[in-house]
Amino acid sequence: MIRAITVDPLAPLHLAFKEVDAPQAQPWEALVQVKAVSLNRGEVKDAKEQEASSRPGWDFAGIVIEPAKTGAGPQKGARVVGLLPLGAWSEQVAAPVSMLAEIPDELTFAEAATLPVAGLTALYALRKGGMLLGKRIFITGSTGGVGLFAHQLAAQSGAFVVGTASTEDKAKLVREVGADEVVVGYSEISSASKFGPYDLIIDSVGGATLAALLPQLAPQGICVAVGFSSSNTATIDMMNLVTSGGRTLYSFFLGEELTRHAAADDLSLLARLVAKGRLTPRIEVQAPWTEIDTVAQSLLERKFSGKAVLHIG
Length: 313
Description:
With 313 residues, this protein is α/β, with parallel strands linked by helices. The chain folds into two domains: 166 residues, Medium-chain alcohol dehydrogenases, catalytic domain (Quinone Oxidoreductase, Chain A, domain 1), CATH 3.90.180; 123 residues, 3-Layer(aba) Sandwich (Rossmann fold), CATH 3.40.50. It has ten helices and 15 strands.
């Protein structure tokens, strides 16, 4: 038996510890002793909608204790980072080797655990813009996990990058990670037009923000909608969108993207960038996983920027 965090409708945040059966790996899966996990707002919110005893958790990092029987992927003793659709908040996991990458010795487990959901989302969203050298990019949610990674990766591409922040203090952080300009306050989102038009917009806010950004796309520009933190509905000026022609609104869902990308290779790329000092995970909170309730509540209330990591064992 092992311990895992499961859904309990009677718990304050619907999260509780429970003894569960140790995972049994399929031939294409490796068994991993989990050392750290990172939290994403989506999985914490989803826990309240899941059935009792469901197993939340996406991002994890740890050590392979039993390699895949096919012989593929990381071998026993390898330090790895990985991604699961469910169940990562556990002492041990069985993970497909296609979602598992070895990490350099220079990386801590905490740093590695921040990479799967936030890092891959940022990487794949930026790739929608094609060759970014000399292009203009606008990123909302700049101080979140995805936003901070997206800014750092975009800055290295040679693009002109504009970010967002709710306060002047947070704007300093956005500039530190590579933004050329920062729009302060989402009520001022229309003022972003003075730095545009944009070849690529990455939006995690939705609602009125998304509606205000679409007219700021350049001809043949693309807006990648990766979330809807403010509202899941938006009123779009269809006449402007249609008569402008050539602009694209792309609906981004990481689970679907992973069916068309080599996640293991891309996780390895992100890990190497961190090891070389070209990408820096911003970890605002680190705590034992026994403090899941406190950290998850702070995450939902947006009390910190960047990522939260829980250590297991």
